[in-house]
Amino acid sequence: MRIVLVGPPGAGKGTQATRLAETLQIPHISTGDLFRANISQQTELGKLAKSYMDAGNLVPDEVTIAMAKDRMEQPDAEGGFLLDGFPRNVSQAEALDELLETEDMKLDAVLDLEAPEDEVVKRIAGRRVCRNDSAHVFHVTYTPPKKEGVCDVCGGELYQRDDDSEETVRKRLEVYHTQTEPIIDYYKSQGLVATIAATGPVDEVTRRALEALKRDQ
Ligand code: AP5
Ligand code: ZN
């Protein structure tokens, strides 16, 4: 399957993508994670992306689309993929459509994760991520690690993302409303959108997403 996950920062895209990708046996492709890997490896792309990310803005389309395309063309993505955080504006959605068309492929579904703004702000404020693996995500109140600051899965150090400050989160939410939300209508016109309530227990949200995917088949 080829799936796009969309939703405001903190809706739980990364959390759900990890689970859905495992269940569906497709790679989880997160442009945010790809940028963060470039930042930690201090590549040119990472240096460029960091300034945009820290300000809560989108990284320019040209580099983002090239990076996403390169990842989607890896052999493990031949049978399908789950895109998390891409596309993030209408021109990226158009670029993805073009890319899929040249390969004679189509998207199967767009899952729109909905959560109220006060909830996503609380989720982001308490989020802690493992330095070793971005799939190891915790929350200081909702899903606290057994030992403060230490990853339960691998023992790695937990940290707070640079773009999770209150000011940057506000900017990211504004960017989501003005630039990303329009892709929901874009995909609605293609009949691809399933809206998922992203509140309640993590397992419950995963169940809703899998149900929606079954209905679409
Ligand atoms: P990105 O990394 O994609 O960040 P985001 O979209 O802002 O989303 P988040 O990672 O903040 O949240 P999430 O929805 O994944 O939530 P999570 O599962 O972690 O992008 C970062 C930046 O990179 C962008 O601002 C931009 O600069 C750049 N970028 C990326 N893609 C780009 C693109 N295509 N074009 C241009 N620029 C791009 O959950 C959050 C917290 O809540 C966690 O602590 C989790 O444990 C907890 N939680 C999750 N679900 C639940 C639940 N059901 N109940 C209670 N707690 C929960
Ligand atoms: Zn870890």
Offer a quick outline of the entry:
The chain has 217 residues and is an alpha/beta fold. Helix content is 48%, strand content 15%. The protein is built from nine helices and eight strands.
Instruction: Provide a count of the helices.
Output: 9
CATH class wording: Alpha Beta
In percent, how helical is the residue content? 40-55%
Strand-residue proportion: 5-15%
CATH superfamily: P-loop containing nucleotide triphosphate hydrolases
Report the uncertain regions.
Answer: none
**Helix and strand string, N-terminal first?**
EHEHHHEHEHEEEHHEH
* N-C termini distance: 10 Å
- The global form is globular
- The assigned structural class equals alpha/beta
Secondary structure: number of strands: 8
Sheet with the most strands: spatial strand order: 2-3-1-4-8
Based on CA atoms alone, the radius of gyration comes out at 17 Å
Which ligands appear in the coordinates?
Answer: BIS(adenosine)-5'-pentaphosphate, zinc ion
Pfam family, one: ADK_lid
GO molecular function: AMP kinase activity
Protein name: Adenylate kinase
Organism: Streptomyces salinarius
Can you describe this structure?
- This protein is an alpha/beta fold and 217 residues long.
- 48% of the residues lie in helices and 15% in strands.
- It has one domain: Rossmann fold (3-Layer(aba) Sandwich).
- The termini are close together.
- The model has no long low-confidence stretch (mean pLDDT 96).
- It binds BIS(adenosine)-5'-pentaphosphate and zinc ion.
- BIS(adenosine)-5'-pentaphosphate (AP5) is lined by residues 7, 9-15, 31-32, 35, 52-53, 56-59, 64, 85-86, 88, 92, 123-124, 126-127, 137-139, 142-143, 163, 172, 202, 205.
- Pathway: Purine metabolism; AMP biosynthesis via salvage pathway; AMP from ADP: step 1/1.
- Residues 1-214 form the Guanylate kinase-like domain.
- Catalyzes the reversible transfer of the terminal phosphate group between ATP and AMP. Plays an important role in cellular energy homeostasis and in adenine nucleotide metabolism.
